[in-house]
Here is the input.
Amino acid sequence: MAGSAMAQPRSRLDLLIRNGTVCDPASKMKRLADVGISGGKITAIADRLPADGGVEIVEARGLYVTPGLIDLHTHCYHGATALGVEAGPIAARSGVTTWVDAGSFGCTQADGFRKFIVAPSPVRIFGYVYLYPDNRNPDMDPVKYVRSFVKQTGQTVTANRDILIGIKLQVGSNMNGRYSYDFLKIARELCDSYKIPLLAHISFAPPETDQVMELMQAGDVVTHCYNRHTLGILDESGKVRMSVRKARERGVLFDVGHGLGSFNFEAARKALADGFLADTISTDIYNLNVKGPVFDMPTTMSKMMYLGMSFDDVLQRTTAAPARIVNRVEGMGTLAVGAPADVALLAIEDGEFPLTDSQRNTVTAKQRVVSRLTICKGKRVSQG
Ligand SMILES: [Zn+2]
Here is the structure.
């Protein structure tokens, strides 16, 4: 054994994050502290932790040490449509340690999702399965076709519960044409019989918002809630529809899902003015919006802060709240001792920052969120 190794007692910690402001909405913690990581878990949070045994130190002075961000709506499956982005490199620059693929794949592709997307990734990846597998025989009636996959879709989710959360469906006239409402009803039946949640994208009527809300239940998620399209949460006067409020009272959750077309400053402003804050903030990142207007999760967080939400409120909706929906890893979304060491080091910068919504409206924000370091399962996530 080398002399230097003998001279240094082995540290109890793998990584020590020094002097940051620990900010954990789940435990309502906000304090200057050191965070110790060992064996992929958070093992200590204290005013000062000793840097013994040559432990690797991350200096976090002036930064927020937060739970790793959780993006409930992404596309990180590489399918035939090639919409997916690769999670790892974007995670490295954005603080997102948990990615939820929102239905980029159908039940016939779940094995590939596990083997080629989830398993090799340095970050955590989960998914919602798309109701509609994309290898349809054009001669077959689409409703019959989807019905023929109900059993396999339900069974696929239940057999892969460790990585699959529920069913995704794009509801709107532009997605499945005149079949959209029929598909939604099929999705409802499927989710009821397999006791799994639904993630519903909303875009253009028909069906109408009230019809969609009627079919949503506790634990289901409505994504693209701040779109300005005809299938949205606002009525003609810019107020949140009663059916939407009632859905929320029943336990239906509302997600931002920014995307290429689904985040509008004016719609978000009106909803916020009417007291309607999204339950979760997500990007709907894919390769047509990763170079703008979405870019990444910190940019989407900055937009919500520009609209008046506090950093704490934004952080809660990108950590604790989506963690409850994913609900697959104990302690995920918090920084408590014993929790998995999924950590983001975030900064809030002051300056003049242009932010652009899906309709290409640009505003100038005085602050923005940036990520300085991403740690997942106790390890730094690197760009390479
Ligand atoms: Zn999407």
